[in-house]
Write a structure and sequence with these properties.
204 residues; mainly alpha; 10 helices; 0% strand
């Protein structure tokens, strides 16, 4: 596998990852409401889950994934419910952005799990990867190095994209420091979380 093929594959993944969707809104709302660290953890969870989906696609297990659709469905609804719960809590809370960000290691773990649930809760992504890879990659000639390169590319694109959204939204949130502005940001973030949760739950 050549460098040019990997770059072409990463560009295709980037176009898909940068497109607005539930993952992007989850990272942005987490960054605004809970701070940069939890948002990066959420993005990391999304990246790791996408690696799992790509692995399933590479193994040709799309039929198996459909068979265990109930598992993906459960993960999807769990992630949606948690997002809605966080959004409700943000609406009710009067905490500052700094206080929300200082939730400790458990907050990072919950954000990581949230990102993973959002990613794994979209089993159709397996079909996306299964249809994209043959267009760019020579799957028949993929060896261990090639498979590793594909997984690293998927992880890198997701981390860079979601990390960029987290950094930009965290930087913009620092412009608002008054209590009134923080309360407004909390409600915007809470509404975004609730809306994202509903979109994830309604997505077929």
């Amino acid at each position: 596998m050549t460098i040019s093929i990997i770059i072409a594959y990463m560009l295709a993944l980037f176009v898909a990852a940068v497109t607005p969707g539930p993952a992007m809104f989850a990272v942005i709302s987490t960054s605004i409401s809970r701070g940069l660290g939890p948002a990066l953890a959420c993005g990391l969870g999304i990246a790791l889950s996408d690696m799992v989906l790509v692995s399933v696609a590479l193994a040709g297990l799309t039929v198996v994934a459909k068979t265990f659709g109930w598992l993906f469905l459960g993960i999807k609804y769990a992630g949606a419910a948690y997002l809605i719960f966080l959004g409700y809590r943000m609406w009710r809370a009067a905490a500052t952005i700094e206080a929300e960000a200082a939730t400790g290691g458990r907050g990072w773990i919950r954000s990581l799990a949230l990102g993973a649930a959002i990613g794994l809760g979209n089993p159709k992504a397996i079909l996306f990867h299964a249809s994209l890879m043959p267009l760019i990659l020579d799957l028949d000639s993929l060896d261990r190095f090639g498979i590793t390169a594909v997984l690293v590319a998927v992880f890198t694109v997701n981390v860079v994209t979601m990390g960029g959204y987290a950094l930009l939204s965290a930087a913009s949130s620092r412009w608002f420091r008054t209590t009134r502005a923080v309360r407004a940001l909390n409600r915007v973030a809470g509404s975004a979380m609730i809306g994202t949760g509903l979109v994830i739950a309604a997505r077929s």
